[in-house]
Design goal:
The complex is a heterodimer of chains A (about 300) and B (about 325). With about 300 residues, chain A is mainly alpha-helical. Chain A has 11 helices and 2 strands, in the order H-H-H-H-E-E-H-H-H-H-H-H-H. Classes of the chains: A mainly alpha (about 300), B mainly alpha (about 325).
């Protein structure tokens, strides 16, 4: 294994991590502000990917596809919030889990009904395809590099939004005391719809960007959703900073674990046994990471109260 | 309360009567459907001990269901190929005997529940939901990437395992076994609910601090409930694998966890027979709606949404009145 391969995998891990961050940020915001656990967040990711694939197929423009993904996911999020989710805020978590599980069934089968069971493909545009040479002579796909940079820019924007703008002040106020900010004249239900739509838009964007690397298909959102849960548990619920650090930690662990564990096992096993044991263990690695964080800090790395 | 008892008795009798009628009229497929109901209800009864009694919303019970399934699959596949499971330090052979498989499934899933529970119960609320979901997924990916027992393709067992004195290949006899185990689990659940342990567990759900001041440890109560719950769901997994004569990683999937929870909510949360009513309704819907439309999950989702938003008592709540409201 060479240093170049290793650095490539670190970059892949980063790319995976920033995508997870886009998912986890929405989830953690929605949980922090509204106290809601939303299993249907993965469906919004899928909606974004399908909207992007459909628009890219019709117009051929990747930028329009991304705009469509953002708009469709935000619209779906706002609609779902208005019709279903707002009835769940003062319910217990069990009801929230089941209602959003029902939403997944509706979204997944609805999408299958409209688009069919076959995966769609979203092509990387010409100006983003091909490799780019990084300092040190490493060739890396330009598109993946763009994803990393986009993710980091969005993360920075989100931090700015939360800490510097009026909307951010309201979001933070809503996290700590919803009655008080309602009493101060803020339309709390409009705020909730906005936060939910914002989270949905981030998920939709992530779906569209990942959709160009993988295929766009029904059920693509749920594995990412569960990883985003792992990210939130590691980072601490409600913390955007925790979501970013947790996401990058999970992304790197997953990518590097798959690369390094078989190599480690080769030191004391024969090659084929090492690669099966190593890859089986690597698939569990992020959950083991989560267990370790839980033993050390049950509330996550940056979590305050539960 | 007596009205609920009446409904419970009717449910259990109905579940026994339908396959008996199908047996008399020679319709083995209906017997298989009823067997599925009994097995899935058993899985639901397992989860209901954690969820209904303990208030522990576990979204990872597919882990135990799958472990039970693989306990059956691994033991039976070794018996099938006549290779020992393990030679050193002592010899373990595969087996086709149901009781041995059940005990293995119970023990293995109880052990897994002990480990998962000990970690997950350090947290509560929404963390607990996410962590149990994540651990369930961990088993799923492990089962997929571990090639020794079929990996992604799963394991097929050609002949159903044996139970002394019975012909398990006869659908009605296999149904009888599953039904008896379900009845046993329901009886155990009812006993637990009224035993000091169940009362303390219920109290810990309502107010953990008060239980602590009584000198009891809510953590231990919950962990015990979680282990019992996981073990029963594991037993259901072994039966489910035996019914299909097939084990695959989908038994570990998070949709499975969701479905087991759906049985409880459809039947009614906090009701002893909720999982039975829920599983029966689910399988009936799957059969009827699945015949009408390829996309029957949309209707299932809409129904589930309706139950959660507007009819929180589920089927039993609808029939028996909302006496046992889950707080």
């Amino acid at each position: 294994m060479t240093a170049i391969l290793f650095i490539e995998q670190v970059l892949n891990g980063l790319q995976f991590g920033v995508m997870l961050f886009l998912m986890a940020a929405g989830l953690t915001l929605v949980f922090g502000v509204m106290g809601l656990i939303n299993l249907a967040h993965g469906s919004l990711y899928m909606v974004g990917a399908f909207a992007a694939a459909a628009v890219a197929g019709a117009t051929g423009s990747f930028l329009l596809a991304l705009v469509a993904a953002l708009a469709a996911a935000a619209a779906a999020g706002a609609l779902v919030e208005l019709v279903v989710i707002r009835r769940l805020y003062d319910r217990d978590h069990l009801d929230q889990v089941l209602a959003t599980f029902a939403l997944i069934l509706i979204f997944s089968e609805g999408t299958r009904w409209v688009f069919g069971s076959f995966p769609l493909f979203l092509d990387i545009p010409d100006y983003l395809s091909g490799p780019v040479t990084l300092p040190g002579g490493i060739e890396y796909p330009l598109y993946r590099l763009t994803i990393i940079l986009t993710g980091l820019v969005i993360a920075a924007g989100l931090f700015w939004l939360i800490s510097r703008t009026r909307l951010g002040v309201r979001i933070r106020a809503g996290e700590s005391d919803r009655e008080m900010i309602a009493a101060l004249g803020v339309d709390i239900s409009k705020l909730y719809t906005m936060v939910f739509a914002l989270g949905a838009a981030l998920a939709g964007l992530a779906g569209a960007m990942v959709g160009a690397i993988q295929s766009v298909q029904v059920g693509m959102g749920e594995p990412v959703l569960i990883l985003a849960f792992v990210v939130i548990v590691i980072g601490g619920i409600g913390s955007i900073k925790g979501a970013l650090i947790g996401a990058i930690l999970v992304g790197l662990t997953d990518t590097l674990g798959g690369l390094l564990l078989p190599e480690v096992f080769k030191l004391f096993m024969d090659t084929s046994a090492a690669s099966t044991t190593g890859s089986a263990l690597a698939s569990m690695l992020i959950y083991i990471l989560m267990a370790c964080v839980l033993i050390w800090k049950p509330q996550g790395l940056f979590g305050g109260q539960a | 309360m007596s009205r609920e008892r009446l409904i419970n008795a009717a449910l259990l009798l109905g579940l026994a009567a339908v396959p008996l009628y199908a047996w008399a009229t020679d319709e083995p497929f209906t017997i298989t459907l009823a067997t599925r109901v009994a097995i899935l209800a058993l899985a639901g009864v397992g989860l209901n001990i954690a969820l209904g009694l303990g208030g522990l919303v576990s979204l990872g019970h597919a882990a135990f269901f799958g472990i039970g399934g693989y306990a059956m699959g691994i033991l039976a596949s070794h018996a099938q190929s006549s290779t020992p499971l393990m030679e050193a330090p002592f010899l373990i052979e595969g087996t086709k005997s149901m009781p041995v498989i059940w005990i293995t499934a119970l023990a293995a899933s109880a052990l897994a529940a002990l480990l998962i529970g000990a970690l997950s119960l350090r947290t509560s609320g929404v963390y607990f939901i996410m962590i149990t979901l994540a651990f369930g997924q961990m088993f799923y990916f492990f089962a997929i990437s571990w090639p020794a027992y079929g990996g992604e393709d799963g394991l097929s067992i050609y002949i159903r395992n044996d139970f002394p004195g019975l012909n398990t290949l006869d659908p009605i006899q296999f149904f009888g076994i599953c039904f008896a185990l379900l009845a046993l689990a329901l009886w155990l659940n009812a006993r637990l609910a009224h035993a000091p342990f169940g009362l303390a567990l219920n109290a810990a759900r309502q107010n953990a601090q008060r239980v602590e001041t009584m000198g009891l440890s809510p953590f231990r109560l919950r962990l015990t409930a979680f282990v019992i719950s996981g073990a029963i769901t594991g037993l259901a997994g072994a039966l489910f694998a035996d019914l299909n004569r097939f084990v695959s990683p989908t038994m570990f999937s998070w949709q499975m966890s969701g479905e087991i929870m759906v049985f409880i909510i459809l039947g009614g949360v906090g009701r002893l027979y909720g999982p039975v009513a829920g599983a029966a309704l689910f399988i009936t819907l799957e059969h009827v709606l699945g015949g009408l439309s390829e996309f029957w999950h949309i209707y299932l989702g809409a129904l589930l949404l309706g139950v959660v938003l507007f009819a929180r008592g589920g089927v039993i709540g609808l029939l028996a009145g909302r006496k046992v409201a889950h707080d």
